[in-house]
Design a protein that fits this description.
Chain B: Keywords: Iron, Iron-sulfur, Metal-binding, Oxidoreductase. The complex is a heterodimer of chains A (892) and B (59). With 892 residues, chain A is α/β, with parallel strands linked by helices. Chain A is built from 23 helices and 38 strands. Classes of the chains: A alpha/beta (892), B alpha+beta (59). At the A-B interface, strand 1, helix 3, helix 5, helix 6 and helix 8 of A face strand 1, helix 1 and strand 3 of B.
């Protein structure tokens, strides 16, 4: 078993070290296993399965820095990799989250040599992180690309290390460019600098030496002023990059798909999850280095791409389960069955389970109490069904692990035995008991009895609850006809759903209409035309141009939106909505923008390239200024796309005329992933990169013959003047900050005006509001391929909802109003974050509050706020909670 | 002539990306084979302590 939370939580035998398998000795595990689960005769089997599509998500392996002799990872015990440091910080790791030097020694070393080293162990006072180990490096390894994630994880590790070890821990990060181009990343970086006091040192460390006595590490580096500095650290963390393993490369070879220089799957910007071979899709780091939310987007996008190709054979191989008819137990005397789980030795190793079982059997209304080794195993579930039927049980209590993971499983078992799934109560005697009180078994046993008694008291009052069926209107509204919106619409339509695109302009295409080419060199207009043609020829897609959204009513599955076209408003009914309203380029108010037509923005330069503007032939000296309006106090985010875009255009200028002088004035070059290769190419072509600080921005003076641009050179530390005839400003991408739209769907905007997704990591293409999805730059600025990925991902997430057409139900745990008691004060209506309660408009109880079960999330806010005691939370009713509290008070 | 399509998908890799692809496909009507070479699913993300920029627990 790899770690205590592994799924499946099962042990596996490592055949390379097992004595039984290698030498036919030992065999102890077979003897002691109570479940007879050990079978030494099992061998590898070859299975052949037929499939319509394949998705490759083989991931990466962390770069192995052993071959770097200057950092001495293999020899110095206090030089660790970032992956190892991640485990050091983890509460389930080898040091249980304690940050210590010599972390790789066993906790209680047995060997004499290790014992001596262990005496030198101390809590580190100074830790250094070295960035770009195994990335952006073609001298010591062949990884020219940027791994995209290391800057952020190093900052995170430094912050968490300080949390663990105390704020006096000195953390320094040695870096080349700080790359934090993701959503909320720049703020995190700024906080690390100013709030957490983490040192950022722009330098590539030359070498590390060790003090053989203490194990301390001496670091030699050249600072920005060119001085050689030697400093001592207790620990060094190497921020290792992401690498594609040999195994994955072999797999790609067998499948005959093309790889890039860095070993990643080759994909096109307009089909960003399709490999070079039809029917094989790719997702995650194998599709270029990326972090978790992008991997999650890739995952859904690959699912959508694979699904599009197989749309006509959907639901041909899945199986339907037949529901068991529900027994009516209303009015019956409670007859409770209690199941106590040993969880192997997890619970039984501490708690006296037989004694708890015996105790439970004598509690009020308990008909039967049973102890099981693993309540969650299939045989235990089958037995549970049998007992429920045989003894005529109508309430079930399971005392085991956490309901978070296992409640649905047991509820399923109840359903299979004909019981309403809410006639179930689970109490956690593992996480809340045997794990935390493992040194006090007697007390733990008493606590287990208390917990079981409380659960039984609550279960006795449980009532069967009804889940309301939600009808899903099988049509979709996509707001925004740019790349992301069109991609989402195309995927949804190809899977058979009627899709409406709402575009306020007169044509589709959005900001992409202004782009010249992608970072991979594809002609954007050609591909965009093809996409627009696809949309136009798809009879499932209805495009509403010159149309705005005037209002939205309803909830998941049943929205009614008001569309306004040419002054006329028409309603549109739809089941789900995708918001893809994009972002636009900032109108800069600095660097003399607007005062001279030689000062333009990135998209204006794209236009010149697109139209082969003859002015481009006369450019002798071109300057790009980066971060115009981005990474500033009023806009504290990185616009993500500008570095690559400027580097790409700089190359194009050089390729047009190698004699043109091209300068890029930047703060950090953020060509993440394989975009780094463009940065490398630009330098090779002679593009000159000059870094500036935000405190010392370049100055632009408009003169008749040229633009005079002055910047402090970071190498010379002296002002340099460039006479240019073209200045391109990499203007920030700003969101539309559409508060009206946000309000229509009850979805949040962040401080800058981008939409806030459901979960920063795991829900990047959906909102917390059910049935509403997000794609494109309205979420965060992103290049073509990422906008398309998110468009596909939003479609995929929407599809999983649309596919549940006949099986989408509300939860039974919702609030309900006792109208007799309701005083119509309206507090519940104002407090509910989901707009679920409202006043009844008509009928006998008109004016009283009513809860819409479809919108209710069962949070209980209204219940607590109701001064008349009129609102009840089904399944957590006041009498149930009080009965638990009273039961706790009884002495066992 | 168009060959007959199969309504199932093989997903190779049980990390965060593979797992979610499998879930999306299964939830939209396809039979999924999720293939993982190790003894458990979860991949690298399960080994991380916390995640940026929210410092959420990775498990």
């Amino acid at each position: 078993m790899e770690y205590p939370q592994a799924v499946p939580l099962k042990y596996a035998i490592n055949p390379d070290v097992c004595l039984k398998l290698t030498k036919d000795k030992c065999g102890t595990c077979e003897e002691v296993c109570p479940a007879d689960a050990i079978d030494y005769t099992m061998t590898e089997e070859m299975l052949t399965v037929a499939a319509g599509s394949i998705i490759l998500a083989p991931g990466f392996k962390p770069f192995d820095p052993s071959r770097f002799d200057n950092y001495q990872y293999a020899n110095f015990p206090n030089v660790v990799t970032s992956m190892e440091f991640e485990r050091i910080l983890s509460a389930t790791g080898p040091t249980m989250g304690h940050v210590t030097t010599f972390p790789k020694l066993p906790a209680n070393p047995k060997k004499k040599k290790d014992k001596l080293l262990a005496q030198k162990r101390k809590d580190p006072k100074k830790i250094a992180w070295f960035q770009c180990v195994g990335s952006r490096d073609i001298n010591k390894c062949d990884n020219a690309y940027c791994s995209s994630v290391c800057c952020m994880y190093a900052v995170k590790e430094a912050i968490i290390a300080k949390e663990h070890a105390g704020s006096d821990l000195d953390c320094s990060i040695f870096f080349m460019d700080m790359r934090t181009p993701g959503k909320e990343f720049e703020k995190y970086y700024e906080n690390a600098k100013h709030k957490h006091g983490i040192n950022f040192i722009r330098s590539r460390v030359h070498s590390v030496t060790e003090d053989p006595e203490t194990g301390d590490l001496s670091v030699r580096y050249v600072d920005e002023l060119g001085q050689i500095i030697t400093e001592t650290y207790d620990m060094i963390v190497l921020s290792v990059g992401l690498e594609i393993s040999e195994e994955t490369r072999d797999l790609a070879g067998k499948l005959d798909i093309d790889l890039t220089e860095g070993g990643f799957a080759r994909t096109a910007s307009f089909e960003p999850v399709a490999t070079s071979r039809d029917g094989i899709y790719v997702s995650g780091v194998f599709n270029n280095p990326k972090d978790i939310p992008e991997s999650v987007l890739d995952a859904s996008a690959a699912a959508s791409a694979a699904g599009d190709a197989l749309a006509d054979v959907r639901n041909t191989l899945t199986k339907e389960t037949l529901p068991v008819e529900e027994t009516n137990v209303v009015g019956d005397r409670p007859s409770i069955g209690v199941f106590i789980c040993d969880c192997g030795s997890n619970i039984a190793g501490v708690v006296d389970c037989p004694s708890v079982t015996e105790y439970a059997a004598n509690l009020p209304y308990v008909t039967v109490a049973e102890e099981t080794t693993y309540a969650c195993s299939q045989d235990a579930q089958d037995k549970m069904v049998e007992i429920i039927k045989e003894k005529g049980l109508n309430r079930i209590v399971v005392a085991a692990c956490t309901p978070k993971t296992h409640e649905p499983l047991f509820q399923e078992t109840l359903k299979n035995s004909g019981l309403n799934k809410y006639l179930f109560e689970m109490t956690n005697i593992r996480n809340h008991n045997s794990w935390v009180h493992k040194n006090n078994p007697d007390i733990a046993t008493d606590k287990a009895k208390d917990l079981v008694r409380m659960a039984v008291a609550k279960a006795a009052l449980a009532q069967p609850l009804k889940e309301e069926k939600i009808n899903v209107n099988p049509s979709v509204m996509v707001v925004g006809g740019g790349l992301a919106g069109m991609t989402a619409a195309r995927s949804l339509a190809s899977q058979g759903y009627e899709t409406h695109i709402i575009e306020k302009k007169e044509c589709l295409g959005g900001e992409a209409l202004k782009l010249w080419k992608t970072a991979q060199g594809e002609d954007v207009q050609k591909e965009l035309d093809a996409l627009i043609q696809d949309i136009a020829s798809n009879d499932k897609i209805i495009v509403h141009t010159n149309t705005t959204l005037e209002g939205v009513d309803g909830f998941v599955g049943n929205f009614t939106s008001q569309l306004k076209t040419d002054g006329k408003t028409t309603p549109l009914e739809h089941g789900v909505a995708v918001l893809a309203t994009g972002a636009k380029a900032l109108e800069p108010d600095e660097y003399s923008f607007g005062r001279d037509d030689r000062i333009i923005r990135t998209l204006d330069l794209d236009k010149m390239f697109k139209e082969s503007d003859p002015k481009l032939d006369t450019v002798k000296s071109a300057v790009f200024i980066q971060c115009v309006g981005s990474r500033e106090p009023q806009r504290p985010y990185c616009s993500r796309v500008c570095c690559t875009h400027s580097v790409d255009n700089a190359i194009a200028l050089k390729e047009k005329n190698p004699e043109t002088d091209v300068f890029i004035l930047y703060r950090d070059i953020r060509t993440y992933g394989e975009r780094e290769l463009l940065y490398k190419k630009a330098r090779e072509k002679g593009v000159i990169f000059i870094r500036f600080d935000v405190e010392n921005k370049p100055e632009v003076v408009v003169e008749k013959d040229h633009l005079k641009i002055t910047v402090i050179d970071h190498v010379l530390n002296l002002p340099v003047t460039i006479y240019a005839d073209l200045l391109t400003l990499a203007a920030a991408l700003v969101p539309r900050k559409d508060e009206r739209l946000a309000n229509f769907f009850k979805v949040p905007l962040n401080d800058e005006g981008f939409f806030v997704e459901k979960h920063a990591k795991l829900g990047p293409a959906e909102f917390a509001t059910d049935g509403v999805f997000i794609a494109g730059s309205a979420h965060y600025p992103k290049p073509v391929n990422e906008a398309i990925t998110q468009g596909r991902a939003a479609a995929s997430r929407a599809l999983t909802l649309l596919a549940k057409k006949d099986s989408l139900f509300t939860s039974g745990n919702v609030a309900s109003v006792d109208v007799q008691k309701c005083s119509a004060c309206g507090v519940c209506i104002s407090i509910c974050p989901y707009n679920s309660p409202s006043f009844l408009a008509e009928g006998r109880f008109a004016g009283k509050a009513d809860v819409n079960a479809v919108l209710c999330k069962g949070c209980g806010l209204c219940v607590a706020s109701c001064r008349s005691g009129a609102i009840h939370l089904r399944g957590f009713d006041t009498n149930q909670i009080l009965s638990q509290i009273f039961a706790l008070d009884e002495v066992s | 002539m168009e060959s007959k399509k199969t309504g199932s998908v093989v997903v190779i890799g049980g990390g965060i990306s593979g797992m979610l692809s499998a879930l999306d496909l299964a939830n939209s009507g396809f039979y999924v084979y999720l293939v993982e070479k190790g003894p458990s699913i979860g991949g690298v993300m399960a080994q991380l302590d916390k995640t940026f920029p929210t410092n959420d627990c990775a498990m």
